[in-house]
Records
---
Amino acid sequence: MYNATLQQKLHELVKTHNIKDAKFVERFTANIDDIRSHFQTIYGIHPQSAILFDQLLDSICQAYVDRSDELKKRDVAKDKKGQWFLSQDLVGMSLYVDRFAGTIKQMPSKLSYLKQLGVNFLHLMPLFKSPEGESDGGYAVEDFRVVEDRLGSIEDLRAFQSTLQSEDMYLMIDIVLNHTSHHHEWAKLAKSGIKEYQDYFYMYDDRRIPDQMEETMPEIFPESSPGSFTYDEKLDKWVMTVFHHYQWDLNYTNPKVFIEMLGNVFFYANLGVDVVRIDAPAFIWKQMGTSCQNLPEAHQLLQLIKMCVEVATPGMAILGEAIVAPAQIMAYFGTGRYETHECDFAYNATQMAVQWDALATGDVRIMQNAQHELLRKPLGATWLTYTRCHDDIGLGYDDYMIEQAGFTPYDHRSYIKNYYSGAHPGSPAKGALFAVNPKTQDARLSGSLASLCGLEHALEMKDSNLIQTSIDKIILMQSMSMLVGGVPMLFYGDEAGYTNDYSYLADPGKSYDNRWMHRPIINWERNKLVDKQGSIENRVYTALQKLIKLRRSMAILADQKNIQWIPNQNNSVAGFVRFKDGEKLTCLFNFSAQPQSISWFIMEENGQRPSQVQDLWSGETLPVGMDHDHLMLGAYQFRILN
Ligand code: GLC
């Protein structure tokens, strides 16, 4: 659309900021009308809307001007690759700087370990100033632009980013968009009685509105922070705190909040961040009578951010950390004409959860039943695939997916929770229930990859067969994340088979949150064992290393929406075909503790049936049999057939 007044405004701005880049002007011209209409839809009725819109446009130009020449060059290089983040070359790891290396300055000394593994994309868990004891692992931010003292400084972060860049590695950090710590400057000013800053948050004089809103708002941390509002004595008001009582929800009905937070997004972009992880985007818009999640305005705000980023700092991709139901997740990639213009990445939390489901039951039908939703992901956007992260595991897939597999949802979920929390007799998994809601009996799960796969138990039993089985399970889970489409994100410690760490129980700032059991402190003496042949660390690490090498070498694994699931033949074996230019890769996964067979008919899927295949994982060459012949898979074995 063309709007003469807007275009004139744009040219004046470009002139004032002395911007000479025709590409920038092109991107701005293409987006300005949509930026205006989104801003107008949400903030049009605000009395200062016109002035604030001008401020928004100005901030876009300023962000571009502030971007270093080096980053601008990197933008151009990424642009040439098309959607650079779809590549099979990317393999990530999420880590806490302090628990992994100590400080930001110490990170470069660990890069060879990561590079040797094949990781080239780092998600540094929140680094910004956050009050000790009320930090939520850094997700309660006191200052969005000051690095936590014990981790280093903003200069250290800049220096590390440029090291990563020179090593051809990518960086992701979080922007915690939904809330701030109650120690953030805005919260302090609000507490001191300044109305302008009270309007940055949601606060009420009495319980009338909070009571009504809580009727429809699910509780996120029902054990440690029940309800969604917290009484602040100093203010004598009820403040909205959806997460912990010390995390105050920002009020995005106030355009000033949006503009300030967009400024922080640009600040991170200009630090050289390749992917910004928008924390908890599902929650950023609240409305009485709703769950206050996934609302249309939340999507409009995300699209608005995306468009502004596309214009000013185009090389930075956006990951939306929306851990929502399968039917809701697709909207985070944008809908209608905004498809692929919202978040570039979303966590494939459903796939992660159904993998855990299959591992507990040995039955892959729920996983298969979830795929029709997941396959709706548009071409041009991608998943972040994972087995574990710093958070809990929610069994967020739909009841009908469970019912279609012949199970009763309530009983089935109870079984999975008991299996992983160790309450089920005979289960080798050692995890714990997280956020148990006494009213609904809902619960999620904590535990490290290794402990949930039975390694902790096997070590206690000193049983080498059980140890081997748990390693097989770990690698099975990881192999799926590497092959299913999207960018795999490992969680630090998992590459060396770290089991649960219970030391958090002695720290009052952490003991109320059992997610800390799976956030280990790396012991580098122990990690040296990754090079000691036959050690557990070595067996896990080298298997992952091999998987990553395979992944990065095969263009067929880039996410070009090139996946087709194989119809069910055996309830324990999941399979899909990745395809590209007439070639195919058939991936099969046995989630059962017993050997399983599958008819060679699977080779009819998607294209020619070859006379023989090579299993790229085991190295075997296998003649392809007739339909009545069977291919065997051992317990927890997977095959990558080429
Ligand atoms: C996200 C983070 C989680 C945090 C929450 C509140 O879900 O991943 O760790 O507790 O947001 O910020």
Note: The pocket of alpha-D-glucopyranose is lined by residues 136-137, 139, 176, 243, 279-280, 321, 390-391 (CB under 6 Å).
---
Amino acid sequence: MAEVYINHHPLVQHKITRLRDKTTGTNEFRSLVEEIGMLMGYEALSDLPTEEIEIETPLEVTPSPVIAGRKLAVVPILRAGLGMVSGIQALVPTAKVGHIGLYRDPETHEPIEYYCKLPSPIEERVIVVTDPMLATGGSACDALKLIKQHGGRKIKFMCIIAAPEGLERLKKEHPDVQIYVGHLDRQLNENAYILPGLGDAGDRIFGTK
Ligand code: PRP
Ligand code: URA
């Protein structure tokens, strides 16, 4: 059974409200996506394994925890997932970054893959996949399938807004993935856009149309 964490933090909810506002411009939108990436990343990484090392404070020698094992991998789904990466890098500057390029066909809404480059070895890393929008779930499910084909095992998926349809699909197809959601919205419209949503995340982050 997939673990799903729906965020209720007032700071995250406040920033999501700013994102939804159609008058919020590209500059502010990009900063908000980065900040939400950091706040949600803080929550999603709370179960990272640690190990004790011995260090010397100015007063004495003491055991103290550090992050154990191979460092994190962050894998944004292009384009919009890129916006969340710097927020997570602010928390874990040593994280490696992979990229998966997918776009939705405007007619069928099916994801089309155009790029995949992942840090190696991927097997032992905790992998955080980022995409602000989980709509039908097609892009997220395909990205997770690709990562698993490359050997990825410990995977977390982080989105800012999810539609119930996409969340159900993701839980069903990838029950082993931990899912972090900033806000669960009402439904998809006839064009598979999330309602109330925030519009096209990629266009709003990068100022395209
Ligand atoms: C958006 C979004 C997700 C996808 C979600 O990307 O960033 O990747 O749609 O929809 P789904 O759950 O129905 O697959 P888009 O295809 O618009 O590409 P872009 O980020 O390059 O604009
Ligand atoms: N992709 C977006 O950017 N927004 C949506 O509402 C759905 C898919």
Note: The chain has a mean pLDDT of 96.
---
Amino acid sequence: MELQSHEQVQLNNLDQDIAAANTKFSGLDYAPVGFFVLRQDFRVLFWNHCLTGWTQLSSQEIVGTDLRQQFPNINQPKYLVRLKQVFQGGFPAIFSPQLHQSVIPSILPNGQRCIQQTTVTAVPAASNQGFYALFAIQDVTNLTNRIQSYQAELRERKRAEAELQRSNAELEQFAYVASHDLREPLRMVTSFTQLLAQRYSNQLDDEANTIINFAVDGAARMQALIDDLLTFSRVGTQGNPFEVVDCKESLNLALSNLQILLQETQADITKAPLPIVMADPAQLVQLFQNLISNALKYRSERPLTVEIGSESQENHWLIWVRDNGIGIKPKYAERIFLIFQRLHTRQQYSGTGIGLAICKKIIERHGGRIWVESAPDQGAIFYFTLPKNNLRSDGGFLLTSLVKEDI
Ligand code: ADP
């Protein structure tokens, strides 16, 4: 179809055109890219060494012949339409490996099919007779293989991530159901052992009373652990949607919840300006409360000081709670964030070892990080980050560069 018009063009003498093309394009002879030049009648005017290597066709064999005889791929209408635009309009064309077969199919030394990216540039033909098509064919086999294996790796990573999320959600659900359903029978055990202790303590000997007391104590501890486990599992399953939260207000709420302890310990609290962020308000209060109550609990002999501060960093806010208490050996810095991990006995300090695990879970739900810097008797600084560019629930961006100075 379109070809007819190409062929009807009055063309110069072939030998002259070949000689002119050789002078013009000889610089491309040894390029590591396949180059050939085509005239409107599909006669090959130039063929470089790289193509000879790929096809075993020397330039003597192919120059002057009609390309379509050796490489019929080019006869497909999708190529012909684009080539007409090159020859007549001077427009460039790109035949990408994703959408096109190779124009010059070739096999690599390892037997693999060469994947080609072909760019066609229009260059003015001799004697102003339209354009020649200068084909540049790049071997993109390695690149394509690398991209494909990278994509496969990415797919596998996404699948593993989805699987991890699914199993985390399942575990969370399990912890929730188990702790929720265990509460009722445990309450029965606790109240009946307490009843037993109250009603029959004067009828039993000392040994029996000690045993009952152990049972009461054990049941009470188990109840505390299960309550904590339930709180922990609720962080992920029953959190509130994020909203604009002024950290100063969350901190003040946490401090007012700890009022009695604060008075008992006579802690000196220093509050630096804190940012406004996107967060679950109740969880932010819980976070501050857990960290500050630990600062109060793990105090030293020194008068207790607790400092809460923040710093703007590139993509997030850095917030810290610093105390001058007993501190932690650096080797325990990660362990203390695990559920039910404690560094002390119940006799030394009360607690179940869940406070920091809850903090970690809250912070991870908000897309941040939490860690501690400390040494024995040197106090502890608990740092956490909160992202600045959390999306609002209505899809808008929140400007989180605000710091409340008026504390
Ligand atoms: P709990 O206080 O119930 O033990 P947490 O998860 O809150 O549970 O803390 C885990 C452990 O981390 C504590 O047992 C304690 O040893 C250590 N810890 C936490 N906060 C501090 C702190 N501010 N100073 C020293 N040690 C701390």
Note: The pocket of adenosine-5'-diphosphate is lined by residues 294-295, 298, 323, 325-328, 336, 342-344, 351-357, 380 (CB under 6 Å).
